[in-house]
Specification:
about 450 residues, 10-stranded mixed sheet
Length: about 450
């Protein structure tokens, strides 16, 4: 007799499964979208939340960290919309604002009336209800292995933005996707973005996340990005969620030949966060850069997991991640560079560095290379350590107080990847946020 093994589901997993079932028939979209949503929901119910025995999640045991599943957020009321209206994490930066409040696209706060020529933007809920052709591309990109966070986002596929940039279009100002959570009770949101950047186009997109302090809300976000041949695309990301929030986000990108791509993620919010990135080099002569920073304090836990997939010859990628970890915080970076058969002349370098500001902080760095071609130049490195006492002494010997000297060293350490941001205004805001974080550190 064979015994049937049934895994024990946590309260969070049971609540999520119940929410998936309850939302099944009231979410917009039919046909293939409904099938995609149902398949994702079924996969999550069968697999549950990832835990430390899942290799990609070994440092972020979501089954243990996610104690409860917050109910789906209600549509924003007037108070929430008014709060979002005042929220501007990039002051002084002229950008096209697209605002989602509690996971719902708010047209009255978004600038859709006078779009630049060659730019199309449609709220996802509207596109799903109307059967917009762009929705057919949702789910086209998938990670190498099953991702429970992405499945959850797909199972609750509801609202977000669809952006299409026509061939040859050079956008004059950035597009800013604002994700703002409002409310005093725990709630969950599931926003989705799809961006298609046409051949020889040029664009900068900013993504930001924020919400109330001391409220255990939960954010799930996913972005699918298609960058066509000869395009130039910069993606800048600021995760500044509230201190008790749970943040899960996924980026899936496919990049064409002769394209240039830059990704700059900055993480400083949420109690627990995870950013999963998969970049597929689907063409030749691609130049890509990943340069990000993480600033943590208290008991924050932040995980950045990245896969760079070199599929074609003559690809160049540079990855630099820097973390400043204070208190009892924990920073995780897992980065893997894949070089496939035939991807000759690949030039890929990855480096991750963590600055430990206390003895109780923890850094987990796991850079990897998987190379199946013989004519390549690839390398990786990882370091973690405290502030260099010799450098500190140099400042102290010149009469600079210890706290100020430490702040200068931390700032210079973290600033390196941020100074690579091409947009001057956005770069200035990000560097100013580092200064604010240091001042709050005391």
């Amino acid at each position: 007799m064979n015994a049937e093994i049934r895994p024990i589901r946590t309260p969070a997993e049971q609540a999520l499964a119940a929410s998936i079932e309850a939302a099944r028939d009231r979410l917009p979209g039919a046909g293939e979208i409904k099938k995609l949503r149902e398949a994702a929901g079924k996969a999550f119910v069968e697999s549950g939340l990832p835990h430390r025995r899942v290799e990609e999640w070994k440092y972020t045991d979501l089954r243990a960290l996610m104690r409860d599943a917050a109910p789906l957020a209600s549509p924003p009321d007037k108070k929430a919309i008014e709060q979002a209206k005042k929220h501007n994490p990039f002051p002084g930066v002229e950008a096209l604002r697209l605002v989602l409040v509690n996971g719902v696209f708010v047209s009255e706060l978004s600038e859709l009336a006078s779009l630049e020529k060659g730019l199309t933007i449609v709220p996802l809920a509207k596109a799903l209800a109307e059967g917009n052709k762009l929705t057919q591309r949702i789910g086209e990109l998938q990670p190498d292995t099953y991702d429970a966070a992405l499945s959850l986002n797909t199972a609750f596929l509801n609202d977000g933005v669809l952006i299409e940039i026509a061939d040859g279009t050079k956008l004059a100002k950035p597009i800013h996707i604002v994700n703002f959570h409002s409310g005093s009770t725990p709630a969950s949101t599931y926003a989705r973005s799809l961006i298609v950047a046409g051949e020889d186009s040029q664009a900068t997109v900013i993504e930001s996340f924020a919400g109330p302090e001391k409220v255990a809300y939960q954010t799930s976000s996913a972005m699918e990005l298609h960058v066509a041949d000869k395009a130039s695309f910069d993606l800048i990301r600021l995760q500044a969620e509230g201190s008790a929030a749970l943040h899960l986000s996924t980026l899936l990108a496919k990049i064409g030949s002769d394209a240039k791509f830059a990704l700059h993620p900055v993480t400083q919010g949420a109690a627990v966060s995870r950013y999963s990135v998969t970049l597929r080099f689907a063409g030749k002569n691609i130049e890509a850069r990943f340069a990000g920073a993480t600033l943590l304090r208290g008991k924050q836990h932040a995980d950045t997991t990245m896969v760079i997939d070199h599929m074609m010859p003559h690809g160049t990628s540079r990855e630099l991640m820097k973390s400043a970890l204070d208190g009892e915080s924990r920073g995780v970076f897992q980065g893997r560079i894949n070089v496939r058969h035939g991807a000759q002349k690949t030039d890929a370098r990855m480096a991750t560095h963590a600055l430990m500001l206390t003895d109780t902080a923890e850094s987990d760095n796991k850079p990897e290379l998987e190379i199946f071609a013989d004519d390549v130049q690839c390398g990786h490195g990882a370091t973690s350590g405290a502030i260099d006492e010799n450098l500190l002494f140099y400042f102290l010997a010149r009469g600079i107080p210890r706290k100020e000297a430490e702040a200068l060293l931390i700032q210079s350490f973290v600033a390196e990847p941020l100074e690579m941001i091409a947009h001057e205004g956005v770069r200035g805001v990000m560097l100013a946020r580092v200064e604010d974080w240091l001042r709050a550190r005391g």
